[in-house]
Amino acid sequence: MQSLTKKTLGIFWRHSKRYPWQVLVLIVGVLGQTALQIYKPLLYRDLIDALATAGLKDGFDVGIRLVVLIFVVNFASTTIRRVINFTVNYFQPRVMADLTNSCYQYLHKHSFGFFSSNFVGSLVMKVKRYERAFEQIADQLTYDLGRSLLVGGMILGVMLWQYRTLGYIVLAWCVLFFVFSYFFSLFKLPYDIKRAAADTKTTAQLADTITNNTNIKLFTNYEAENKRFGDVVHDQYRLRKKSWDLGTWGDAAQAFSMIVLELVVMYLALISWRDGRLTIGDIALLQSYLGLIFDQLWNTGRNIRNIYEALADANEMTEMITLPHAVTDAPGAPALAVKRGEIVFKDVHFGYHQESAILSGFHLKIVPGERVAFIGPSGGGKSTIVKLLFRLYDVKGGEILVDGQNIAGVTQDSLRQALSLVPQDPILFHRSLMENIRYAKPSATDEEVIRAATLANAHDFIMSFTQKYETFVGERGIKLSGGERQRVAIARAILKDAPILVLDEATSSLDSESEMLIQDALKKLMQSRTTIVIAHRLSTIMQMDRIVVVENGKIIEEGKHEELLKVQQGVYQKLWGIQAGGFAAA
Length: 586
Known about the structure:
10 strands, alpha/beta, 20 helices, six-stranded mixed β-sheet, four-stranded antiparallel β-sheet
């Protein structure tokens, strides 16, 4: 926990150092304003003593000079405060924006597995909390805790200089006060961390149920989900109340200690006044200083707790952005150069979990321009092979070569630029259709986008919309049907024009008419490029150069359609019999 806190503060400081002049202005400004705040009660002390001891005329003249000086101090203090505020208005939003960008950039470099294991809603909340945590800590140091420490330190300096005995009493009290505040904050920190985790869990649960709102309706599970969410919210309430109750008890202890200190100091001050060692102005100054100390330190414990609460909120994100990326480019990795499009899986070993292997000693060579189809039972490893080719995961053993280059030794961007994927369930941005298709090639013209959409049999349905290509598709493309989303994905692949094409159930959501129209486009797209097709509908792969049957992570059959049909009791023959023969019999 302490390690994460240090990392969080280190990250915040590194981002703050990008603006050294603003940091310097804030430091000098806070020091200057605090010094003026401590100086002003000294002027009032002198004013009171002058009016109490000097004659009418002399007292008036001295009073006028002191009042003018007090005005100058107030004017300077107010001016400095405005400078601080305007500096903060620039500094904090800039650093917060930088932190958000850093989180965004680092998160998106995490692997496919990372995002499979984390709720979208909780990740979004952690990023927003991160920037708010910086704002809270920066405010504390500028306006609250940092200024409180300066006020306390300067007042103690004056008191030790002019009222030594009382100064030592106040110093001892301050030490005890800060020790209590620090250790109480450490005691409360685990409860703050649990509270922050409960907040994250509530957000994640809320996001998950909103995403699955259709399932809740279809399966009529509203009551069950309501209870599930209610239990999470109750845990959040319980932990939040516990954290707040502890804070209230801490405030009560501090308030009691302040009452005791004021009683002791004022009693001793009155004795000194009686004995002629202090003036009326001294009494007023001491009361003013005690008021300042109480005013500043009353919130010190709370300020420290606020900082730790902010750190507890931020630490969750710090853990995410200090977690090493599972898939990284090798230092100085070159870009992949694809001239032919040969793919070789060489003794590949892989498993999502330590105890289970999906692929074990997998061998396959795909020659340039070859069209290869993977079929087999679900869970056999077909999609895993594609994920490894795109390097969404790194192999545990062996290597994958593209034109003789190990994909682990080239940059990920160059690898993925050489590959086009049409997934089984395309996910689109909540942007226009034009932007979604152009995403494959940002430099493409409108004419190129429209041509790709036409080849993918998407142009007609796009033109039927009121906004046509400027139609927004909704979150994840929810406003489109499954078949329409797949045609958009196919249009993207056509526009990208990569040398290696991967079709993962690319026509599974299309009706028979659309599938027939799109097969011609896919045939043209597959020409002169290496193609990998994953399909359960065998009618879509009959024309492949080679069909590879994968089961339990191993190749058990391979050949052309006609060849595999001749294999007696073969897996492909059985699957064909179920799909083609079964329908024919029906």
